[in-house]
Specification:
Helix content is 25%, strand content 30%. A hairpin with a 2-residue loop joins strand 16 and strand 17. Helix 1 crosses helix 8. The relative contact order is 0.20. Bound molecules: benzoic acid.
Amino acid sequence: MTQPADHHFDVIVVGGGAIGLSTGYHLGKRKAKTLVLEQFNFKNQLGSSAGVSRQYRIPYPEEYMVQMALDAQPYWDELQTLTPKTLLDKVGTLWFGDPSVHSTEGNIAEAEQALKALNVPYTSLTAKEIEAQYHFRNLPDTYTGLFQADGASIDFRATIETLYQACERNPYTILQDESPVTAIEQDGKLFNVTTPKGVFTSEKLVLVPGPYIDGVINLLGFTIEATYWNMSSCYFKKTDPTIQYPTWFVFQNAIGSNGNQFYGFPGVDWDHPEYIRVAPDFVIDPLTSPEQRTLVPNPQELAYTSAWVRDHMTGLDPTPHFTSTCLIALSRIPDKELLIDFAPPYVPNNQNIVVYATGWAAKFTPFLGKILTELALDGHSTFDISPFKLGYTYFKAI
Ligand code: BEZ
């Protein structure tokens, strides 16, 4: 990887996952001299960017999130022009389950209201229709659902690769791996960022290290309230090779104190094509820091997922053949998933430090890079980020 000859940049982006690369890409387009620092290797499987598929969906219980998903679409279209690989496999989003359940992803009835308010087309479904049209079985009669045709399975490996290559092609953007940030000092209006490969200076910082956020913001004297989760995924072999699912999410009542939501994907040609990925969306074993993470999925999460596949899906062998994990930071933000803000006011030059932390952001990848770029270069975004400016609640001084 190229070593930066010059040590001074307009912007240093800390974190080289999907969002860091997207920010590097957008900053480069604005001709801002940018250094993207990655503590491991780029395209690694050690953070929130791990795993090679994600869901793009429009249903959300809040209108501003529906709007954000709609606003993200042109940025996906733009990224698509940079690669022959299909980034969004538009198989649709199926949400179904107990209409009274409020999960971390929201609630079906509220999402229907928000979709209606923004004139997003969708179809309401009964339990019997979901079984007949989408291969699920043994669903309680009380379950309802919605299908929204613009939902997609994201080829996240291709997304990250496309952003990485776009950054590499841009002379304004330097990518530097194996560069954990060990100190951030301020010298007047300049930030001095120390890594094992040297000390780099910039006028602006964008901090997007995913689940490693606390280790970075601690260097500036503040912390974020979050828990960490080694989220697992299981791959189930198709016994019926013709079986196909949309991207889906099921809302159900709790097992003990853990919500037992599951979500899944269609078979995709970029990720174990003969298999269907299904994953639990409930935390059994929260971690207090990223260092506690192993690459081994929680066996209870796997067992619950396998039992759900056996009881409610068709055309699959309910034994998980492969697994994967991804490390994420979860905040306690009720329904408001993303935190996008400047550093808190007690940090000197806080308006020159942009932070994105926590939440499910993969579906916003190309758009979030644009938002963070505008915040860094212009001090504000053309997109209304007020619902996400939650640092005053979730950042604490240390
Ligand atoms: C999401 O669409 O945001 C999502 C889907 C599955 C698990 C977690 C988040």
